[in-house]
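EI: anyone free to look at a 357-residue chain?
SC: sure, send it
EI:
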Amino acid sequence: MPVVSADRLRRIAQDTLTALGTPSAAAAAVADGIVDAALMGLDSHGAIRIPQYVRAVLDGLVDPRAEPVIEREDGGVIAVDGRCAFGQVVAGFALELMIDRLARGPHRLVAVTAHHASHVGRVGAYVQRLADRGYIGIAMVNNHGSRPWVAPFGGREKRLSTNPIACAVPRPGRDPLLVDLTTSATAEGKVRLLRNRGESAPEGWLIDAAGRPTRDPNALYGPPPGALLPLGGMTMGHKGFGLSLVVEVLAGALSGAGCTRPGADWPGNGFFCLGLDPAGFQPASAIEAAVEGLIRDVKDTPLAEGFTEILIPGEPEFRTRVRRAAEGIPLDEETWRQIAAAAEGCGVPLGDAGATV
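SC: here you go
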């Protein structure tokens, strides 16, 4: 299995995108997002996305030179038109606007939306950036109305996107409390990785075109295509289904990207993010004491059989980041082949991945 260092993966992504005519700052933003996801162990949003982004540019779905603009601003609400730029560029632009408005005041809550943003990558990265500045962040995206992957609870055909939600809460001097999840049973990228590796999916992730449970990743893509199940699967999927509809409204309807619907054909992300300045609610010391007390209490719970520790959301990923930064990022052979083909097609030869920590 190839193992690449974070620096090498960053160079591969950045050089490949630059060869497509992407300005250096935009290429760096996208490459940083890919590497960030890979270091956190979220491979569904890491290196596997390089070939996808290359195809999007070559197919004319992404304008690598585009720059997002403010479409309108009303009090603490900012609407951004991404103009079909890379999603990391659009979401990063929107986030910096939010941070600026929160820092300057007078608003303690600022919301940003964006449409015509291509795939933004790991949604948790944006709320994590807010938490690093001392703000609470809640973010979510839909698929800009197109390319559904998920069946509604009780249905057998895909009608919704995976519709992730992320929330980060600052913890001074520590990694934030970070929740980053899809409202589907899993991210589509994880199924794509399983297909690349020739592995089966866990029970409860997928149904085939007839609505029957399956563990075959190929069933999702067809023909005819199956579907991902909502978070909670065949028995409790009404919970993920309900959350998914909320994401459609906030990330789709409010942003102008639109809710997932027949006929939509631009495969980007509608983006919604809410930033809260905790100073507008309670004294900082009181908030910190409440959050840390909660975490201590849940971690002090007697352990169930088979467990050695209670980890709060975000802890596994932050530990993975430390390990992969030192040991490198593992890639399966098929994913590396696809990355190499995409890069070499842009005139960026890679050779053998090897162990290049």
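EI: The chain has one domain: 3-284+314-356.
SC: 👍
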